[in-house]
Write the structure tokens for this entry.
Amino acid sequence: MSVVPAESPPGRARGGVAEAAGPAPAALGPRARLWPALGAVYRAQLSRARVARIPLLFVATFQSVGILIMMRGVVDGGREAESVVAGSAVLVVAFVALNLLAQYFGQLRASGGLDHYATLPVPPAAVVLGAAAAYASFTVPGTVVTAVFGCALFGLPLTHLWVLAAVIPLAGAALSGLGAACGLLAPRPELATLLGQLGMSAALLLGVLPPERMPEIVRLARDLLPSTYGVEALARTFAAGPDWAYVLGDLAVCAGVGGVSLAVATWAYRRAAVR
């Protein structure tokens, strides 16, 4: 019989046979994939925000309809009416996706709610995209109602309103990413609310007012606003013969800006979650 010396390290062979020092650590479960995690976050956000956000959606729709009625006394028709109707419809998206999402992430960061998401095995992109998609979903009824009411008020055709199926998600992605980034990067929730309000005011002034009546420097600022390209894409479809190449170009720019803004929001989420 052989004796193992006391100084022998744990796990050293006894009688030539390897002996484990203790139980092996359990392997961690696989991290959730992006799309299933995104769907789970989207459903959770949609169910939580449904009751609280529906009254605010009525406010956003009522605001846009009121702007249409007010502008009817100033604008008669033509290209200016097309800009007013398109801008008022996209303003509903800006109110919810930009303003409310900035407030939500600002409050989530201030209250420590990001710690809850940080403990979940979900990618950061799923949290940002799921919340953005849920908030953007609330804009669909108000945007459609505003566009239909505006067309009836200004005598514009309803033929190509199906393009809203592309304008709403693309403009919503661009504005949601911007709103989420403002909420996550703002050091205080009050500042996040202020940034969201300023962004919505920019969408109101630069998106609803006809660009033909703006100074050149204001037009340049309008080109920097992500929602402008969604407004232009929708406004072009009111023409008798829409130039679909320009419509697709505007939607492509809107999609590109949306991808960049959501990437920035994902980076801001990672930055805020580790602090």
